[in-house]
Amino acid sequence: MKKVLQTFRRWPQLLAVIAIMCCQIATAQTSRYTIKGVITDARNKEPLIGAAVRITGTNQGTSTDVNGAFSLNLDLSQGSYPVAITYAGYKTVTRTVMLNQSVVTLNVEMSEDALNLDEVVVTGTTVATSKRQLGNAISTVSAKELEGGAATSIDQALAGKVSGAQISQNSGNPAGGISVRLRGNSTISGSSDPLYIVDGVIINNSSAELVDLGGYTQNRLVDINPADIDRIEIIKGAAGAAIYGSRASNGVVQIFTKKGKSGAPVVNVSTQFRSNSLRKKVEYNEYPFRFINTTAADKTQVPVTRYDLQDEIFETAYGSETNVSVSGGSDNSQYYASAGYLGNDGIIKNTDFKRATTRLRLDQRINDVFKLSTGLSYTRSTSSELPNGGINSAWGALTGFIFGNNFINPQPDATTGVYPALAPSFLLRTNPLEAINRFDFDQQTNRLIGDITLSAEPVKNLSINYTLGVDNATQLATAFIPIGNTTPENTTGYARKADRISLLLNNDLNMAYRAKVGSWLESTTSLGGTLQTERINSTSITGRQLSPASQSASSGASIVTGDANSTLNIQGFYVQQTFGIANRLYLTGAIRRDGSSSFGEANRWQTYPKLSGSYIISEEGFWKESSLGSVIPSLKIRASYGQSGNLTAIGAYDRFSNYLNVSLAGLPGLSAPTQFGNADVKPERQTEKEIGLDASFLKDRLGLEVSVYDKGVQDLLLPVTLRPSTGYLTQFQNIGNMTNKGLEVMLRGVPVQSSNFKWNSTLIFSKVKNRVTDVPGGVVTFPGGFGQVAAVNGYALGAFYATAFARDASGNKLLNVAGFPQPEQKSRNSAGQPTGGNQPRVIGDPNPDWTGSFTNEFSIGKNLSLRMQWDASYGNDVFNFTRRVGNRDFYGGLKGYEDELRGTVPKGTSAALFGIMENWIEDGSYLKFRELSATYDIRLKALNNKPLRITVSGRNLLSIDKYKGWDPETNAAGQSTAVRGFDFVEVPIPRTIAVGLNYTF
Question: Is 275 exposed, middle or buried (0-12, 13-18, 19+ CB in 10 A)?
Answer without folding.
Answer: middle
